[in-house]
Write a structure and sequence with these properties.
Elements: H1 2-7, H2 10-76, H3 83-97, E1 129-131, E2 137-145, H4 151-162, E3 168-176, E4 185-195, E5 237-239, E6 241-246, E7 256-261, E8 266-275, E9 279-288, E10 292-298, E11 303-304, E12 309-310, E13 318-325, E14 333-343, E15 349-359
Antiparallel strand pairs: 1-2, 2-4, 3-4, 5-8, 6-7, 7-15, 8-14, 9-13, 9-15, 10-11, 10-12, 10-14
């Protein structure tokens, strides 16, 4: 190689040196460019990782309040509640929103026995329907109807339902108005979603049967005591009606009482000694083939409290629940005819079961 270079002319030597120099410079430039590309990619990677780190720090800062918010939501929508618990919480929430002055969420609901205390008046609470076919959630739907009221009150009540912390959804609303009347009756269909983790246990259907005897003031509440010779239910009084037993009103129930009206205003009732000024809650399952009412009557005056609550007369079993305040104050004893079931038509048949009467909140 050196011998060949030595035989070259001066111009050839200069040309060779220039070519070698250009090749060396090209190689160096190629290496430099590749290094610059690598550095640019590294800068982009560092910037991307910095952005991810910033986002992770921001999400970590938000994690605690988000978890607290989810825990609060899960507390309102436990997937382990029974169907009875879901129904009770939904009914209490709707009753809370129906008051003109809404108490704080979770606070005790005051008795609405003063004129104007209710925004809308809901007299009956039919049993709802539970749908557990969803993945990770359950839905509970209930239909109810208000007493005639102004369209403005219905609109305000609808807005309250939509803003409820229980995440209620109004799936149906039907308004009816009598001729020449300025008030409307609203039929609502409301759905509550109960959330839970995938694979969480499904809500259990509440077992049929009366509440615990220690808290239930109703006597012979499930009609397990029955006198077949006299066709009477111990603890219950009846007027203008005959009694038989029935087993179809409650799924899995043993004995229900069937009241057959022999004339208008037939009645099945108990007289209870209650504490004046105390709020009570009465619940029962009933179906009727004719016009019937629940009445809560002050025995001292013979007049019902808060009007008469009509029962749905479509031969379908419904769950009802009402609250009332025993008249008077000071905690003295007061005699009340409660419950009092009145059949307004001769020939009407009322089947009733699972009666509970207890102090509200007990």
């Amino acid at each position: 190689m050196l011998a060949r270079f030595a035989r070259m002319s001066a111009s050839e030597k200069r040309l060779s040196i220039v070519v070698i120099a250009l090749l060396a410079v090209s190689a160096v430039m190629l290496v430099v460019l590749r290094c610059l590309d690598a550095l640019e990619q590294l800068d982009e990677t560092i910037a991307s990782q910095q952005l991810l780190l910033t986002d992770a720090m921001r999400y970590a800062a938000l994690a605690e309040p988000v978890e607290k918010a989810y825990a609060a939501m899960a507390e309102q929508h436990s997937s382990e509640w029974t169907q009875e618990q879901i129904h009770d919480r939904l009914r209490v929430e709707i009753a809370r929103l129906s008051l003109r002055e809404i108490p704080a969420d979770g606070a005790a609901i005051p008795a609405a026995n003063q004129p104007g205390a209710l925004l809308v008046d809901i007299r009956s609470w039919p049993a709802g329907a539970l749908d557990d076919s969803g993945e990770g959630y359950r839905t509970y739907q209930i239909n109810f109807r208000t007493e005639p009221t102004s369209i403005q009150n219905v609109a305000m009540f609808l807005e309250r339902l939509q803003q409820s912390p229980q995440a209620l959804r109004v799936d149906g609303l039907e308004l009816t108005r009598q001729p020449l009347s300025t008030e409307v009756t609203a039929a609502f269909r409301v759905t509550r979603t109960v959330i839970g983790e995938p694979g969480a246990p499904q809500p259990k259907v509440a077992a049929a049967g009366p509440p615990a005897e220690a808290t239930n003031l109703a006597i012979n509440a499930d009609f397990a005591q029955w006198n077949p010779e006299e066709s009477t239910a111990p603890g219950w009084s009846v007027a203008n009606a005959s009694l038989t037993t029935d087993k179809d009103v409650v799924d899995g129930g043993d004995t229900a009482l069937s009241v057959h009206a022999q004339s208008a205003n037939a009645e099945l009732y108990q007289v209870q000694k209650l504490r004046a000024g105390t709020v009570y809650e009465i619940g029962f399952v009933a179906r009727t083939t004719g016009a019937a009412q629940l009445r809560i009557v002050d025995e001292s005056t013979g007049r019902p409290l808060q009007g008469n609550a009509p029962l749905v007369a479509d031969a379908v079993g419904y769950q009802y629940s009402y609250r009332f305040t025993a008249p008077g104050s000071g905690g003295g004893d007061v005699l009340m005819r409660v419950p009092s079931f009145v059949l307004l038509e001769s020939g009407a048949v009322l089947v009733v079961d699972n009666i509970s009467l207890r102090e509200a909140g007990a």
